[in-house]
Amino acid sequence: MKVNGKNIRPIWLCHDSKLVKIIDQRRLPHEFTIKELQTVNDVIMAIEKMCVRGAPLIGVTAAYGLYLAILNAPVKTVGDDYLIKTCNKIKATRPTAVNLAWAVDKVLAEVLKAKTSTEKIDVARKAAGEIAEEEAERCRKIGEHGLCLIEEIKRNQKEGTVNLLTHCNAGWLACIEYGTATAPIYAAFDKGIDIHVWVDETRPLNQGARLTAWELGKHGIKHTVITDNAGGHLMQHGMVDIVIVGTDRTTSTGDVANKIGTYLKALAAKDNNIPFYVALPSSTFDWKLKNGIKEIPIEERDSDEVRYIQGFDKGKTRNILIPPESSSAANYAFDVTPARLITGFITERGICKATEDDIKRLFPEKDDGRQMTEDGRRMTEDR
Amino acid sequence: MKVNGKNIRPIWLCHDSKLVKIIDQRRLPHEFTIKELQTVNDVIMAIEKMCVRGAPLIGVTAAYGLYLAILNAPVKTVGDDYLIKTCNKIKATRPTAVNLAWAVDKVLAEVLKAKTSTEKIDVARKAAGEIAEEEAERCRKIGEHGLCLIEEIKRNQKEGTVNLLTHCNAGWLACIEYGTATAPIYAAFDKGIDIHVWVDETRPLNQGARLTAWELGKHGIKHTVITDNAGGHLMQHGMVDIVIVGTDRTTSTGDVANKIGTYLKALAAKDNNIPFYVALPSSTFDWKLKNGIKEIPIEERDSDEVRYIQGFDKGKTRNILIPPESSSAANYAFDVTPARLITGFITERGICKATEDDIKRLFPEKDDGRQMTEDGRRMTEDR
Q: B-chain residues within 8 Å CB-CB of A196?
């Protein structure tokens, strides 16, 4: 998407494919820093230190990590041992990121089929690039389908702005291009529809205020940052036409685990009769799960993410302490929004209701209750 | 309430009643500063700069302001003109604070009856002191009635901790003693009931994380700071037994305007069948109002309160910027929780349902639809 008028992705190959560049997301929005990754160790560091975050982007970065490992292998003939050891090292960076392991294994499988070192390098680069393009394409399709919803609102209201509300960052920074929840927003904007986005700041890590606001602003989309407390009031007063959020894990019955606070917005949307949509690539479905609240484990993260807030002061990114030093804090990272509060899902195959039957209509091949999507992938990381 | 083992109020008279001392609440929780107010101008500054906040405390501070003005009057014989001019100056500090004007006028009415300068000084000091004691007593009674609810939960669960959740700061820092929402909490703690409080940080100004957490911690009450996003998840998982919040303005039909985000917590409580109580002195009823969402105007405050957050770093209280410099923000200070989501009101007269009939049962003298409480007072400030 656009940054200062130029199209950019959160990761790309350059210098005759000799190195990978990424946007260092830790510094956003106050510092726009491009980081060069020359070796697999640079990639490991970038994932560990969360210069990159978001399931699809972590996967693509990891895939390029394996490519760089092969490109810069210490010996001319790369053995299977070296490859497998390297894969394990990459996978260990964020062990809960299923997407990461999936991407690395996908590149590895291709590389193991290749014979010469040159072939292995070519195959790895190509496989990693394909993963990136597939992620982008899935998001493009989500945008295409979601656009219809925004166009319908526009038709019904005849004049004025379409007001959307989103929570956290399910944007291109996490997804190569378009994003998931933001894909319909970019599609509507690019079609010239007058839109405005209410951006939940999304405590504790403020991915909304820091990343979504930055993305939208750079692309030229009107938006307003609000506290996570404000959405209910806006909905009560007719200031929100549609809510679109992402998801980290989705049950076959339509329950959604997403960034903490999503559930509260879904309750408010229901109470005010406002459509509440979840945008997702089908890879977030966990087909074996039936009851999100009971079955999806909710990660409890470091309480200092609640106690300290990162911001900018006097030319420097700083962390400041909010509550008394002696007060403890709890940091549940996600919550579960029950299907009954969700108007529908926007997927790469189209839109469906958040019901087991309608999900199966769109994904009939999952009807046998198999656990994984065709490519065996799930997303669990959306930080 | 207790701070470092000593009983303290947010305001008190000292040095032979020659000066007023206050806790400078702007610096909490990281700096505990006592500020001396020697003149009416000191008082005006303290209210304007929000060293004191919360309707009852602002009222008491203003009342002491008039007292200091008379005590330090430039001429020996204080004329009515001087008194009225001074009152207007004090009232202008926060024009929407109805409580402030009410308290100043109450002291003025007493002073105008007095004859000699010495008498005027005595009468003013006494009137201001009475207002303080009345505020404290109202809160004490709220605590007494609310305690019954906590005792009932304790009886039903037999063992373990009673978990409460509160939003913002409706504590003693705003109310001389006990607070409103916190009054039942202090009462239960002092009775030895095992309680734990989930403290919503309450963005944008973080009065929960900064003030409520500080109050509870200083009194020795177990508490955990959470983001405003977290309450719904906690309620889904049985980790909250009761929610108690304050109110800034309450309709005769039971709708409640309170700090932004209260509505979202009420929705979650309802969805999870958890009792949701509002603690209030009856002075917050605006008897002429019937529909909170339509009739209560919601103050929109400076957007920089959303964009910047105050915290502590390297021995200094600082403000840091969160979203991109170019992103705008909206800052609605309150929202309205409809009566249908409220289990009941805890008032100084007892507990009632959030219905017009049950409110009238407790306050039968209001049945004629008169606008004001007996003393003509409402609260609109609870910053």
A: none
- How do beta strands B256-259 and B249-251 pair? antiparallel
Query: Is residue A220 within 8 angstroms of chain B, CB to CB?
Result: no
Ordered by start, the domain boundaries in chain B are 2-134, 144-381
Q: Using N-to-C axis directions, what is the helix angle for B80-91 and B40-48, rounded to 10°?
A: 20
Distances (CA, A) of A57 to A25, A116, A123, A213, A382: 11, 29, 20, 19, 10
Rounded to an integer, what distance in angstroms lies between the CA atom of residue B92 and that of residue A135? 59
pLDDT digits (tens, 9 = 90+) for A55-99: 889 999 999 999 999 999 987 678 889 999 999 999 998 876 667
- Using the beta-carbon criterion (under 8 Å), do A199 and B327 form an inter-chain contact? yes
Return the residue of A nearest to B208 by Cα. Answer: A323
Distance from CA of B6 to the nearest CA of A (A): 18
- Hey, is the C-beta of A223 within 8 angstroms of any chain B C-beta? yes
Cβ-contact B50, B35 below 8 angstroms: no
ipTM at complex level: 0.91
The answer to whether residues A279 and A246 touch, using CB atoms and an 8 Å cutoff, is yes
pLDDT, one tens digit per residue, over A96-143 is 666 788 899 999 999 999 999 999 999 999 999 999 999 999 999 999
The listed CATH number (2.60.320.10, 1.20.120.420, 3.40.50.1820, 1.10.10.10) that belongs to domain A2-134 = 1.20.120.420
Give the gap in angstroms from C-alpha A343 to the nearest C-alpha of chain B.
Answer: 17
Chain A positions touching B332 (Cβ under 8 A) are 230, 233-234
Contacting residues of B for A298, CB less than 8 Å apart: 233
Whether A318 contacts chain B with CB within 8 A:
yes
Taking the Cβ of residue B309 and every Cβ of chain A, the question of whether any pair is shorter than 8 Å is answered with yes
Which residue of A212, A215, A223, A227 is the best one to mutate when testing the B interface, meaning the one whose CB has the most B CBs within 10 A?
Answer: A227
> What is the four-CA torsion angle of A151, A154, A160, A165, rounded to 10 degrees?
-70
Catalytic annotation present for B304: no
Query: Min CA distance, B52 vs chain A (Å)?
Result: 19
A332 SS3 class? strand
Tokens standing for residue B166:
């509160």
Check whether domain A144-381 has CATH 3.30.70.3040, yes or no: no
CA distance B149 to B147: 5
Separation of alpha carbons A107 and A112, rounded Å: 9
Pick the closest to residue A189 from A167, A155, A222 (CA basis).
A222
Q: Mean pLDDT across the stretch B314-320? A: 92
